[in-house]
Design a protein that fits this description.
325 residues, alpha/beta, Quinone Oxidoreductase, Chain A, domain 1, 27% strand, globular
Length: 325
Amino acid sequence: MARVVVFDQFGGPDVLHIIDEPVPQPAAGEVRVRVEAFAVNPLDAMMRAGSSPAPVSLPGARLGVEGTGTIDAVGSGVTGVQPGDPIIITAVPDAAVNGSYAEYLTVPASRVIPRPAGLDVRQAAAIWVAYSTAYGALVEKAGMRPGDRVLVNAASGGVGRAAIQVANQVGAVPIAVTRNATKEAELLSFGAASVIATDREDLLEAVLDFTGGSGADIVLDLVNGPGQRELVTAARPDAVMVAAGFLDLRPTTPPEAPLTFHRYRGFEHTLDSAVVRRMAAFMEAGVRLGSLVPTVGTVLSMDDVAEAHRQLEAGTGAGKTVVVI
């Protein structure tokens, strides 16, 4: 039998509980992963609370869109991986019925990549969602190039910190935006070229001052909502804006041309094997060079998964909350 985190009703963290289920068997083209650790993401909390954009069927719903572990078994027709290989799970599109909050998980073999040698288990559990989102939004969607001035909203969050590091690896210039000036030193340590704290300075004035009056070339909005309009004013007229967040669910009218506007969700690219290969190569190089360093915050056990969700919602920790099995 294998332990699995489930919930039978929508609500707060305490609806999460652990049950025993038979160890799943990999079908043709699938691998079974012995999960070693998983990270807790905002989407998990939305699914648990009943506010996620995708439907969740009760009872017995599951959670988890990223994790790391070792290949435990392979189904027929699988090549390129074998039992014992350390891997990272790149996509769990059916997380409500087959999420990574479990001791064992079966996924198509195309949904795992080798775990970079420079990462420990906790870091490996925390890297994929944040860094693949940042890479996908900035490189694949916005076409970020060396020298681009990149304005990153909600920069102190997991994807925001990843975006700063991804921009630096490409040779772009990350400008971090935070609501709290106490985050400045932390964001500079992550590689931000400049930090704009909106509790002490005007966003537009600060961006224009830093860019010599021209504005940002790329804007990564990780919040959405009405505040997006202020970010638009800080972009040059023909800039690219990518809205990749859902922290503010209030309706937002997309900006008008000449600014190029994109909405972005991770599964847009993590289900595309060609893009996943580029993401994996970029991450492997970044880990090897030391330019991509995922930040791990609280580390808890599977028995404390409800506490992991409480800490996620409190938003008081720096770095990803990781559960080690």
